[in-house]
Amino acid sequence: MEVGLRLRALAHSRAAFAGFSAAAHGSLAVAVASSGNGAAAGPVGSGVEVARAKRMLHVVLVSPLIPGNTGSIARTCAASAVGLHLVGPLGFHVDDTKLKRAGLDYWPYVVVKIHDSWDEFRDYFMKQDGQKRLLAFTKRGTHIHSDFSYKPGDWLVFGSETKGLPESALKDCSGEALGGGTIRIPMVETYVRCLNLSVSVGVALYEAARQLNYEQLQYQPDLPEEAQGLFPAEDIYG
């Protein structure tokens, strides 16, 4: 049944990327809901799908503004078998061309869920089973990313390109109930305001994955052979 859902999702993937307003519903597929103004208004995939994927790590983007960054991050999450969560309000339409282009044909491999607000995401996070903690990545972080000890069940939280993380998110990530601390990536601060968001996610995510011996890669989608032809064997944009 699950394989059938995956195949159906993959079969619709090209049509989804042509319009991206209606993607297939199924395991490890992207399904988009939008409000009248084009902002994301519903889950991309269900909580069941996210849980089924057995993700050891998750990336959470809070109010991302630049579609190209989010698309690139989705590609990184696909490559590292990591779940992706987008917390609104978003600064772009979910059918943005730049978002699709940056993610290429990797969207069906990414478990994505959109949450309308931080409060909604917080409620969702609290309902998840197993050990888990929120880790905030911010210039004001108290731990250097490479010195911090990561664990399975960590959710790496990043803010918008211009404003960073809201106080409510920082508070939750710092509190004992949900959080594991605040983390920073060292950089020259005299003339560089911040790292690019997609770069920051890549640096942080792969350090966490390295410490966990890349164990999350064993949970990559196990797609049947027939499905492989739906995606290019060679990435001409690489």
Rounded radius of gyration (Å): 17 Å
Pick out the low-confidence regions.
Answer: 1-53, 226-238
Within CATH, the superfamily of the domain at 57-217 carries the name: SPOUT methyltransferase, trefoil knot domain
> What fraction of the residues are assigned to beta strands by DSSP?
5-15%
Assembly annotation: single chain
Instruction: Please name the CATH topology of the domain at 57-217.
Output: Alpha/beta knot
Highest-level CATH class of the domain at 57-217:
Alpha Beta
Shape: globular
Distance between the termini: 34 Å
The major β-sheet equals: 7 strands, parallel
- Helix segment tally: 9
InterPro entries: Alpha/beta_knot_MTases (IPR029028), SpoU_MeTrfase (IPR001537), TrmL (IPR016914), tRNA_m1G_MTases_N (IPR029026)
Pfam family, one: SpoU_methylase
Protein name: tRNA/rRNA methyltransferase SpoU type domain-containing protein
Organism: Aegilops tauschii subsp. strangulata (Goatgrass)
Could you please describe the fold and organization of this structure?
With 238 residues, the chain is α/β, with parallel strands linked by helices. Helices cover 34% and strands 14% of the residues. The protein has a domain at 57-217: Alpha/beta knot (3-Layer(aba) Sandwich), CATH 3.40.1280.10. It has helices at residues 2-11, 13-19, 47-52, 67-80, 97-103, 118-127, 167-174, 197-211, 225-228, and strands spanning 57-62, 83-87, 112-115, 133-137, 143-144, 154-158, 179-184. It has a seven-stranded parallel beta sheet with strand order 3-2-1-6-4-7-5, sandwiched between helices. Helix 4 links the parallel strand 1 and strand 2 (83-87). Helix 4 runs parallel beside helix 5 (97-103) and helix 4 (67-80) runs parallel beside helix 8. The longest helix has 15 residues, at 197-211. It starts with a helix and ends in a 10-residue tail after the last helix. The relative contact order is 0.17. One of its GO terms (molecular function) is RNA binding.
